[in-house]
Amino acid sequence: MPFHTPLCDLFGIKHPVLLAPMAGVSGGALAAEASRAGGLGLIGGGYGDADWLEREFDTAGDVQVGVGFITWSLARQPNLLDLSLERAPAAVMLSFGDFSPFLPRIRTGSTKLIVQVQTLDQARDAVEAGVDAIVAQGTEAGGHGGARSTLPFVPAVVDVANNIPVIAAGGVADGRGLAAALALGASGVLCGTAFLASDESLASDNAKRVAVSSSGGNTERSSVFDVARGLDWPSGWNLRTMRNAFTRQWSADIDGLTRNLAAEQARFETAQVADDTDIAAVIVGEAADLVGFREPAGTTLRRMISQAEDRLHHIGQLVEPITED
Fold first, then answer.
1. What is the distance between the alpha carbons of residues 44 and 2, in angstroms, rounded to a whole number?
2. What pLDDT score does 151 carry?
3. More confident call, 19 vs 323
4. What is the spatial distance between Cα 79 and Cα 38, in angstroms, rounded to a whole number?
5. Percent helix, strand and coil across the chain, each rounded to 5?
6. Confidence band for 325, pLDDT divided at 50, 70 and 90
7. Most buried residue, 52, 202, 308, 310, by CB count within 10 Å?
8. pLDDT at 319 over 60
9. pLDDT band at 281; cut points 50, 70, 90
10. CA 230 to chain centre
11. How many Å from the N-terminal Cα to the C-terminal Cα in the chain?
12. What pLDDT, on the 0 to 100 scale, is given for residue 82?
């Protein structure tokens, strides 16, 4: 029972599944594989590195992909948007900050604008601006996010979206989550954790090992790794990662981390180079329980679609026809 949504029409894709633009993880190979499997892969532009971005677009080749940026960081390097638009990506996704200054530049071509939101006010701003699609991100997501939970937040955004396709994110890592998102009125899903351990992912070997062996119950939101990395994130957003020795030491003592910042940053940077996940961050969401394999991203995506089709078919059978007395 194949299914088709407005998101498929918007991007000319077979399946309503988007690869999240995970910074440093969603490179050209992973994005291209997600697109080849019928979804749309987004390269993770993150905080901005022109050389890295050029290389990953080259890796994707002639496969249709998009790109995503952290908006407040892109504001400091607007040349990265021009660099990306020269590649004619299917979409630019902007998250965490004021997207409006970039809208005119994106509108000059065929590239679609996806805006990720964490509050209803942000969703209303996106609707008023006439963006092409809205990602409603629940707090269950890995990486940075807000405070709203996916289950109640997605339909609330759908209610104000004025027929703009809404994409559910946060806690979706298999076909059951996709089916649930469609039932909530979403037009598709954006998945990161589901693909972090993929063969094509740029995540480290240890990060992949942790992702497939851990539980979402072992994740937490905090600012500890932003402080350790020297990233001046605006208030209102923090980072979901796996708990490890570093978070246990510092999550409840950010002031102490700040007082010892030079030494702790050096320790953190050494751990990153050594792939020491007891100290370095493993950025993964609450859907970690559903990630049990290291496999090609295309295999994950196709299984997600098959499982969603099965779930939707089963749900349809639960609905009994109305009979007149």
1. 29
2. 97
3. 19
4. 30
5. 45, 15, 40
6. low
7. 308
8. yes
9. very high
10. 22
11. 32
12. 93
Q: Dump pLDDT digits (tens) for 66-98.
A: 999 999 989 899 899 999 999 999 999 999 999
On average, the pLDDT of the chain sits at 94
Q: State how far the alpha carbon of 191 is from the alpha carbons of 14, 94, 112, 118, 284, in Å.
A: 16, 15, 19, 16, 11
Q: Which residues have a Cβ under 8 Å from the Cβ of 316 and sit 6 or more positions away?
A: none
Question: What was the pLDDT predicted at 108?
Answer: 86
Coil, helix or strand for 53?
helix
Q: Compute the C-alpha angle 68/71/74, nearest 5°.
A: 90
User: CA 33 to CA 44: how far, in whole Å?
Assistant: 14
DSSP per residue, 165-234: -EEEESS--SHHHHHHHHHTT-SEEEESHHHHTSTT--S-HHHHHHHHH--GGGEEEESHHHHHHT--PP
- Position with higher pLDDT, 314 vs 187: 187
Dihedrals φ, ψ of 169, to 5°? -140, 145
Fold of 6-202+296-318: TIM Barrel (3.20.20)
Model pTM score: 0.93
What's the token pair of residue 135? 């990602």
Residue ranges per structural domain of the chain: 6-202+296-318, 205-274
pLDDT score of 206 more than 70: yes
Q: What is the 3-state secondary structure (H, E, C) of 64-115?
A: CEEEEEEHHHHCCCCHHHHHHHCCCCCEEEEECCCCHHHHHHHHCCCCEEEE
* Phi/psi of residue 188, nearest 5 degrees: 170, -170
- The 10 Å Cβ neighbour count of residue 267 is 15
Residue 74's CB is within 10 A of a number of other CB atoms, namely 26
Given a contact cutoff of 8 angstroms between Cβ atoms, the answer to whether 37 and 208 are in contact is no
Half-sphere exposure for 41 (CA within 13 Å, toward CB): 33
Q: What is the pLDDT of residue 57?
A: 97
Q: Which H or E run contains 19?
A: strand 17-19
Residues 6+ apart with CB under 8 A from 103: 113, 129, 131
- Tokens standing for residue 325: 């007395």
